[in-house]
Task: inverse folding
């Protein structure tokens, strides 16, 4: 017998009957979907967004809960920079705000200072000062940035003292929370119009 010289068809698919074909029984037949109406309904549907409830302490962006004596949440690097610049924390805060200040330290910040080892033992000794208020942490983990952000979103009565850029960027998104940091070898504060002792800076 001679060879079959017909060219082979590659990637040929089997022909299938359309599921809406009349030859298929009514029970097995697929129903037509009103696609145009569905697309039109999707377009006209209102987009749902979850917005957290605004704090009653805020009058627009002004925080009414802030007032002397100020409670300042201190971050790890703020203590380290204060030591480098030879600044005593409590008197320098009072010079900045012209009012009584109570520095507060969370358990996470203390854990971070303890993890840094003997190089930062001076910072740890300052953090254990009896003038500092110790705040217990009930959450899991010891990441101080998340702890401070969570505490500030829940309670608007704190000022956050930090020199960390990433933490400052996160706190700026929360309305009504002032940020204290070091500038020109002094403490300065942003987003707080009542602080007359703070030096003006371009940061």
Result:
């Amino acid at each position: 017998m001679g060879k079959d010289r017909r060219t082979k068809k590659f990637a040929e698919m089997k022909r299938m009957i359309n599921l809406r074909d009349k030859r298929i029984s009514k029970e097995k037949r697929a129903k037509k979907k009103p696609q145009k109406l569905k697309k039109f309904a999707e377009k006209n549907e209102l987009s749902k967004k979850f917005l957290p409830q605004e704090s009653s302490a805020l009058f627009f962006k002004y925080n009414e809960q802030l007032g002397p004596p100020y409670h300042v949440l201190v971050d790890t690097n703020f203590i380290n920079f204060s030591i480098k610049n030879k600044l005593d924390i409590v008197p320098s805060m009072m010079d900045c705000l012209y009012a009584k200040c109570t520095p507060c330290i969370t358990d996470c910040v203390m854990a971070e200072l303890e993890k840094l080892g003997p190089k930062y033992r001076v910072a740890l000794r300052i953090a254990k000062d009896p003038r500092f208020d110790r705040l217990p942490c009930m959450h899991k983990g010891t990441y101080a940035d998340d702890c401070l952000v969570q505490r500030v979103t829940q309670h608007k009565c704190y000022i956050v003292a930090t020199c960390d850029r990433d933490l400052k960027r996160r706190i700026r998104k929360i309305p009504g929370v002032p940020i204290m940091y070091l500038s020109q070898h002094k403490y300065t504060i942003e987003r707080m119009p009542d602080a007359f002792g703070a030096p003006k800076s371009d940061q």
Remarks:
- The mean pLDDT is 84.
- Helices lie at 35-44, 76-84, 89-97, 107-115, 121-127, 144-154, 165-172.
